[in-house]
């Protein structure tokens, strides 16, 4: 079970249309894409329930009614709540998270809705001290693309950037975001405030990662290294094929 009571709640960001997985997403939302017969959302719900999560808040948008019905079918005893984003086509996931800011402020798990992972990814939190926030991440050198987290010698994130194309030459202390965070209430309250400030400024078309990037010195988020555990972010058909190979029974 998870080591902190405030991680018994989870926010899943599942509002997007999944344009890069077309035509699969023409008739089903991206989190309902199947990997070897199990949907991305179903997989997340299975492992959240196993970890002791009690409440799940889905921030929905595209085909939200279909997605909500699927989540409630596979709730595994958890309470499923919906927060609908009417602006999902004109905003990015920072806006989705802003809509869930009251939950965020109390501390929670935060998951992106396109990550397929094994159960031991979350069990990495079982022995983690509950006095801080964590960003679950893997060795960036294995992926060389995506959200890159650079830490200091103590494992605290000092720099964040989105890498597209050639990564930096020096990848020491660099990790790839696994799209899963464990947010301590102190960080959650500050994060909610930073999201609110950006929404008031009209900065609503960025990843939540980039909101945090502006406040890393205040946030003090530690990387929790999940290297060796199975997980994959699924953005396109090639990712889906890799996931099916990785999780093949």
Quick rundown:
The chain is α/β, with parallel strands linked by helices and 249 residues long. The protein has helices at residues 40-50, 64-73, 93-99, 101-104, 120-123, 185-200, 208-213, 216-219, 237-246, and strands spanning 9-14, 34-35, 38-39, 55-60, 79-84, 108-112, 115-117, 133-139, 146-151, 157-163, 174-183, 221-225, 231-233. Strands 1, 4, 5, 6, 8, 9, 10, 11 and 12 form a nine-stranded mixed β-sheet that branches. A two-stranded antiparallel sheet has the order 2-3. The protein has a two-stranded antiparallel ribbon with strand order 7-13.
Number of domain units: 1
The chain-level structural class is alpha/beta
Shape: globular
Biggest pleated sheet:
9 strands, mixed
Q: How do the helices and strands follow one another from N- to C-terminus?
A: EEEHEHEHHEEHEEEEHHHEEH
What's the CATH C level?
A: Alpha Beta
Report the count of strand segments: 13
End-to-end Cα distance: 25 Å
**Could you tell me the strand content as a percent range?**
25-35%
What does this structure look like?
There is one protein chain. Strands 1, 4, 5, 6, 8, 9, 10, 11 and 12 form a 9-stranded mixed beta sheet that branches. This protein has a two-stranded antiparallel ribbon with strand order 2-3. The chain is globular, with a radius of gyration of 17 Å. The longest helix has 16 residues, at 185-200. Strand 4 (55-60), helix 2 and strand 5 form a beta-alpha-beta unit. The chain has a single domain, classed as Spore Coat Polysaccharide Biosynthesis Protein SpsA, Chain A. The chain is built from 9 helices and 13 strands. It is of the alpha/beta class and 249 residues long.
């Amino acid at each position: 079970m998870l080591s902190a009571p405030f991680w018994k709640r989870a926010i899943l960001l599942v509002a997007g249309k999944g344009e890069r997985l077309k035509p699969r997403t023409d008739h089903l939302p991206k989190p309902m894409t199947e990997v070897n017969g199990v949907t991305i959302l179903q997989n997340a719900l299975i492992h959240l329930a196993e970890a002791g999560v009690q409440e799940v808040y889905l921030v929905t948008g595209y085909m939200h009614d279909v997605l909500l019905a699927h989540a409630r079918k596979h709730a595994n005893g958890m309470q499923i709540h919906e927060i609908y984003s009417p602006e999902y086509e004109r905003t990015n996931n920072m806006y989705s998270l802003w809509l869930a800011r009251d939950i965020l402020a109390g501390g929670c798990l935060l998951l992106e809705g396109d990550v397929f992972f094994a159960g031991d990814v979350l069990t990495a939190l079982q022995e983690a001290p509950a006095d801080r926030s964590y960003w679950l991440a893997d060795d960036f050198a294995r992926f060389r693309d995506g959200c890159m987290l650079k830490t200091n010698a103590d494992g605290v994130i000092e720099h964040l950037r989105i890498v597209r194309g050639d990564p930096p030459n020096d990848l020491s202390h660099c990790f790839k975001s696994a799209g899963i965070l464990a947010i301590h209430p102190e960080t959650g309250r500050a994060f909610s405030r930073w999201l609110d400030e950006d929404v008031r400024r009209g900065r609503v078309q960025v990843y939540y990662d980039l909101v945090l990037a502006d406040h890393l010195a205040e946030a003090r988020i530690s990387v929790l290294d999940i290297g060796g555990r199975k997980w994959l972010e699924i953005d396109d058909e090639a990712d889906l094929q890799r996931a099916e190979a990785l999780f093949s029974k």
